[in-house]
């Protein structure tokens, strides 16, 4: 019982680590909460701090989710890694180091999927990349890839995987509710590549 509680505490603390915030503070002397979208996650790190910092933030956010998902292995526990990983997602969203505020947990959630089922992770991330290349929107890519993950999980006949992916998808949509409004209004931020971005640039030439 104590080891189970310890796993969830460690998972939460791992999720609470905010690489985008610390990289901005220590290496760029910027608080990314004050710029761009104000989010402390990967997308705003790319936007405010640049490509190099964004890639590092993405990798670390992904890895902390993977580390959380591997805790049952470290503790020699039979508890499902997806359940332990949920604590990391809570930590990322409500970080103890940032007065219980945080990011949208997309990369961290993907990291948990990587620890639990690498093949499922590859499938979900492939959909994410495909949608990103078409829409040029990270928010749209996240919502569609997680929705697809719910559908795909049904073929794995893994009840825990399906339940957790449904919860994560609902959570991702909730955290992106302001993005949904901007998508509807045509004012959502885009990455500097992809089909949609190319079409939009051609229209303004």
The radius of gyration over CA amounts to: 17 Å
User: For the residues shown, what is the average pLDDT?
Assistant: 91
Order of helices and strands: HHHHHHHHHHHH
**What's the overall geometry?**
globular
Unreliable stretches: none
The strand count comes to 0
**Helix amount, in percent?**
over 70%
Number of helices: 12
- Rounded to the nearest angstrom, the distance between the terminal CA atoms is 64 Å
Protein structure class = mainly alpha
**Beta strand %:** under 5%
Main sheet: strands, sense, barrel: none
Describe this entry's structure for a reader.
The chain is an all-alpha fold. 72% of the residues lie in helices and 0% in strands. The chain is built from twelve helices and no strands. It is globular, with a radius of gyration of 17 Å. The N and C termini lie far apart (64 Å). Keywords: Cell membrane, Lipid biosynthesis, Lipid metabolism, Membrane, Phospholipid biosynthesis, Phospholipid metabolism, Transferase, Transmembrane, Transmembrane helix. Its main location: membrane. It is a multi-pass membrane protein. Pathway: Lipid metabolism; phospholipid metabolism.
């Amino acid at each position: 019982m104590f080891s189970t509680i310890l796993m969830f505490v460690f998972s939460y603390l791992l999720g609470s680590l905010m690489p985008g915030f610390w990289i901005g503070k220590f290496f760029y002397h910027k608080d990314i909460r004050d710029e761009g979208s104000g989010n402390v996650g990967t997308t705003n790190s790319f936007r405010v701090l640049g490509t190099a910092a964004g890639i590092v933030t993405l990798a670390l956010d992904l890895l902390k989710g993977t580390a959380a998902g591997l805790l049952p292995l470290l503790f020699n526990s039979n508890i499902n890694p997806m359940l332990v990983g949920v604590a990391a997602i809570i930590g990322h969203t409500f970080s103890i180091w940032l007065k219980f505020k945080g990011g949208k947990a997309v990369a961290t959630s993907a990291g948990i999927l990587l620890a639990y089922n690498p093949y499922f992770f590859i499938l979900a991330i492939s959909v994410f990349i495909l949608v990103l290349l078409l829409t040029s929107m990270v928010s749209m890519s996240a919502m569609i890839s997680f929705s697809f993950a719910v559908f795909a999980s049904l073929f794995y006949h893994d009840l825990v995987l399906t339940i957790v992916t449904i919860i994560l998808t609902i959570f991702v949509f909730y955290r992106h509710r302001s993005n949904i409004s901007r998508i509807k209004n045509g004012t959502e931020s885009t990455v500097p590549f992809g089909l949609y971005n190319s079409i939009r640039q051609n229209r303004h030439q």
